[in-house]
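Need Ferric uptake regulation protein's 3D structure for a figure. Predict it.
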Amino acid sequence: MNVELLISKAKQVCNNRGARFTPIREKVFRLLASKQGGAGAYDLLEELKVTETAAKPATIYRALDFLAELGFIHKIESTNSFMLCQHFDHIHPVQLLICDECGNVEELHSSVISHELNNLAAEQGFIVSAQTIEAHGKCEKCKD
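Structure prediction for Ferric uptake regulation protein:
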């Protein structure tokens, strides 16, 4: 992953949307870019405090809310953690494979799964506005 290229893309998305990619938001983005799996807000806060000693929980949550709103990150609901999305330049279906052993998270983009879920929901009179599907198990490295 080329973090500098992702930062450049994120800044361009912010400019296009009239949003500010502040230094704190960039630092949180960079912290998430350094992770293989999800990271909890308080873990990110502790890392952020290395350079931003005055950072508080509200600091990290505001940054995470901003990054999520612009599609830069995904929230992993089952572990209450966050991960960087490298495909934030377009809207896409999201399925996450979460390793319960090492914590690694792989992001998939199956339009087939998304389409089927939307069809099944429509049969129930339900309109899906957002979806992230999470599957837990063991990754290739941990399955043995």
